[in-house]
Amino acid sequence: MAAMDKSEGRSTSERFSHPRLDQLFENRIEADKGAQYAKYLHLDLSTLSPYVSGPNSVKVATPLVELEAQSIKINKAYLLSCTNARASDLAAAAKVFRDAAKDNNDQIPKIANGVEFYIAAASLPEQKIAEEQGDWQVMIEAGAQPLPAGCGPCIGLEPGLLEPGQVGISATNRNFKGRMGSPQAEAYLASPEVVAASALNGTISGPGWYEQPKGWSGVVRGEGDGTREEDRMIDAEEALQKIIGQLDSMVQVAEQTFGTGDKPIEEPVAVTDVYPGFPERVEGEIIFCDADNINTDGIYPGKFTYQDNLPVEKMAEVCMSNYDPDFSSIAREGDILVSGYSFGVGSSREQAATAILAKKIPLVVAGSFGNIFSRNSINNALMSLEVPRLVRRLRETFSDKPASTDKDEITEPVGNKEEQQSLDSPSPASPAPQVKKLSRRTGWKLVWDVKKSQIEVQEGPNGQKWTEKVGELPPNVQEIIAKGGLEKWVQTEIQSSA
What we know:
alpha/beta, five-stranded parallel sheet, globular, single chain
C-alpha cells in the first residue's frame, strides 16, 4: 500500500508521478546570481562504494572495498534492535543466505566457524511478517541465535555482548566504545546485507551481488566543483564575481585584523535577572576531558540505563567510565567539567546529565553540545555553557604536555595495536611512549557570573586571568534548574494551581 500524505490526502505515488517530477526538473530552485558561498563541495557518485562505520565511532566511515581487502575477522554479528530490524531488513539479510545456497546444492549455508550471529526483530509484528515470508527461518537455519524483539546488545543488555578483544559488526545505529559490551572490543556498523555476508564469511564482507567498481582507486570527493584549474572555463561574469568575492574576503580579514580605526565604544554590562534560589556565581577548579564527540555512552554506560534503582553513589562511580575508567578517582566534588566539541552526542538518556550531578559536578563547559544533551541538562537541573575560547586555551596549554606519573591522572597510549604490544615490554633503550591524558586536573579556576553573563578564568596560580562573555541564561530556564529539573517544576506548578 502506498504511503498517504495526511496534509493533502494523496498517496506518495500520486504526488511524485513522472509528470510531476518533470515539472520539478524544469523549474529548478536555484540561488540568486552572484550568491556567495562559504564552501563548494563535490562528490563523484560513480566512485561510491557501500560504507562501513567504525570501529567504535559513527563518524569514522570506510568504503567496504577497503575493509574487505584487510580481511578483518569478526566474532559477532548483530541484526537487531529498533534500527534496521524491520521485516524488509530481515528479508535483505535472508537473501544473502538464499543467494549463497545456489552454490551450495540449494542448502542454506552455515555461518562461519567462530562467529555468533544474533537476530531480533524491531517488534513482534515485524518478526511475524519475517516468519510468514520464511526469512526468519532462513537465518535460524544458517545458525543465527534469536533474541526477543526490541532492545538488546545494542544498548548493552545481555546476552551476546562483545568481550575484550572481540570484533563485532552490527546493523544498529550506534557503535560507541563500550556500548555493546567491553570498551576493549571493536564495533562496526553496516547494512543488513553486509552484516549477513560478514557472518557468513567470517570477515567484514559484502554480499555476493556486490562488485567493486572497475578501475576503482577511491571515492572522488573534495572541495570545489571537481574541475581541475587547467580544465576550467569561466565566462567574464563569473570571473568578475570571483574577483569581487576575493576582494570582499580581503576587506573582511583586514577589518578583523586592524579594526576600523574608530575607538571602541564601551557598552554598559547588561545585568541578567537571577531567579530566587539560582546561584549568582558558580565557581570551581577545571577538570579537562580533552576530546570531541564524547557521547552519552561515554558519559553513562548503556548497560546501566535500565537499572532504575541504581544508587546515586554507583551512578557517580560509573560517570564518564566508558570515556575514562579513572575519571571517578580524578574528579572531585565541586569541579567544573570542561570538554571539547559536540559533548553529549548519541542516545537520549537522562542519566548522562544525572550521573554528572551524582558526581557533584554542577557545571559542564564545552565548545558545543549535542542538542539532546542540552535539553536533558535543563530537564535534570545540570548547568552548561558553551565557551570555545576556553577549550582552545586549554588545548594550547595542555595538549602537547607529556603525561606525568601522578596516580590521580589517567593516560592512554597513542598508536596502533603493534605499537601497543611493543609498549607492554619496552626495551631500556626505547624512548618513553607518547601518551595523552583522558582527564586532567588543570589547577585552573573558573567563575561564572550569572548576572553579568560572563566567565572569569584564572589560568593557574601564576597564570593570566581573562574574562569572556557567555550566553544569557533566561530566568525561566533558571527557574527549572533552581527547582531541581523539569519534573519537579511541573509538580510545583500543579501544586500551586490546585
